[in-house]
Amino acid sequence: MTRSTTQMLQIWNPATGEVIDALPADDRAAVMDKAHRAREARVRWAATRLEERIATLARFRKLVAERVETLAKTTTRETGKPVTQARNEIKALDGRLAFFLENVAPTLAARTVFSDDTLEERITWEPLGVVANISAWNYPYFVGSNVFVPALLAGNAVLYKPSEHATLTGLALASLLHNAGVPESAFQVVVGGGHVGAALVEAPIDGIFFTGSHATGVKVAEAAAKQLSKVQLELGGKDAVYVMDDVDVDRAAEATADGAFYNAGQSCCAVERLYVHESVYDAFVEKFLQTVDAFVVGDPMDERTYLGPLTRAAQLDVLDAQVDDARAEGGHVRRGGARLDRAGFFFAPTVVTEANHRMRLMRDETFGPVIGIQKVTDDLEAAALMRDTPYGLTASIYGQDQTRAEALLATMETGTVYWNCCDRVSPRLPWSGRGHSGLGSTLSTLGISAFVQPKAWHLRRP
Q1: How many CB atoms lie within 10 A of CB 255?
Q2: Which residue out of 78, 89, 164, 234 is catalytically annotated?
Q3: Fewer CB within 10 A of the end CB, N or C, for the chain?
């Protein structure tokens, strides 16, 4: 096939600021051609027995496990994620794949809901058809596989658009899927930036599964509405943590610092706001700063590195603006506060104390290694501040009293709540957002059912 292209997509190394590759990007005509071929392929793939689809994705699981090191280095080169963290993501992917493989058959099994001598009523499940999977760069294995694996298992064809910042990783995943036996037309990679994503959501498809910003998610939903495609949106967060007065200070400080700075804070569920009870505030801040001081910032290919560069250079401006605004609103920058004087897109791990809700840092998504810490007087004040956001992804409480913590967590308008943990995802539990954090669920059996539609059977006996 001859690919129609309008431009080359440059792949940057965020740790050096250098171009490491260039690939031909798809134009609108190429996207439409891929959608047409996916439409044809979906019929054959859906007709493949479920047992065979499961066996195919099991082979993909095995291939991923055999190529952890190569995949990790590819991801680190193009995203700047420390290689240890890229490796951890790929290894942890195995658990998610195992969950989908083990649960797809019982989840999609036909159900007889009524039967007597004269009538049977039955529900079966059919694939959506062609699914557009517009994925993210920060966790390309997790975020992508949460969609394309259950979509393929359920019999859909997939048009997979990896982020332009993780295209090489996306192409590597496609190669493994094809080697495992997924037909090439049933899983196709769409290459390019935002304009290519815009063309994809306007193509004739049956479901759009998008991960990204709230602003782009709204545009995706508007485009999907024009052709009544199913839409699911995994968007951002402004994830809050409350540290209670009865907390184990050292453990809470170490855990929340990791939750805030892992992957340079580039996670939708990274800790972005900390509210600490006044009785433990000073001790908590001291231990939190000690923990941050121990983080190694450096070359993401170095096994010792904990905190690498930002993946996108443009985010440096966002962090600069938030820190400047925090200073102007009375914040005390205790650590960091500026870009690092070195090649690449590095920002110093930054801690702002005396934070308040006048600050953009405590209201707008940060998506970087910057955290604000605010002192609170009691549970009610903490809960009110945690709810003071249009986002609704996660909320967490650290403390000794489970009953007290659960009572507050029940008031959180979020899809996920944590007690004595944060920044955690399980394949057994649904991952969903409310408000500006999105629509629909991935993971759990709900994340399998998302890729099928029901058929009702009315069977009257003669």
Answers
A1: 21
A2: 234
A3: C
CA–CA distance from 414 to each of 218, 262, 427, 454 (Å)? 19, 21, 18, 28
> Catalytic annotation on 421?
no
Q: Where in 302-393 does DSSP place strands (E)?
A: 332-335, 350-353, 370-376, 391-392
271-277 sheet: strands from edge to edge: 332-335, 350-353, 370-376, 271-277, 239-243, 394-398, 416-419
Catalytic residue among 78, 89, 164, 268: 268
Tell me, what's the pLDDT at 4? 46
> For residues 176 and 200, is the Cβ–Cβ distance under 8 A?
no
Cα(462)–Cα(459) distance, integer angstroms: 9
Tell me how far CA of residue 222 lies from CA of 76, 219, 320, in angstroms: 34, 5, 32
Strand residues in 135-200 grouped as ranges (E): 157-161, 187-189
The torsion angles phi and psi of 395, rounded to 5 degrees, stand at: -150, 145
278 part of the active site? no
What is the Cα–Cα distance from 232 to 128, expressed in whole angstroms? 13
What is the spatial distance between Cα 286 and Cα 284, in angstroms, rounded to a whole number? 5
Beta strands 130-134 and 157-161 are: parallel
Strand partners, 344: none
Instruction: Count the Cβ atoms, other than its own, within 10 Å of residue 22.
Output: 11
Q: Which two tokens stand for residue 366?
A: 């940060």
Which long-range contacts (C-beta less than 8 Å, at least 24 apart) are formed by 65-72? 65/94, 67/172, 67/176, 70/172, 71/141, 71/169, 71/172
- Phi, psi at residue 408, to the nearest 5°? -75, -40
> How many other CB atoms are found less than 10 A from the CB of residue 77?
23
Structure tokens at 454: 């029901």
Counting every residue written for the chain, the total comes to 462
**Residue 92 structure tokens:** 């942890």
Overall pTM surpassing 0.90 (yes/no) = yes
Blockwise average pLDDT, block size 10, the chain, 462 residues? 64 96 96 97 98 98 98 98 98 98 98 97 98 97 98 98 98 98 98 95 96 95 94 97 98 98 97 98 98 98 98 97 98 98 97 98 98 98 98 98 98 98 96 97 98 98 94
Strands 187-189 and 157-161: parallel
CA distance 305 to 41: 44
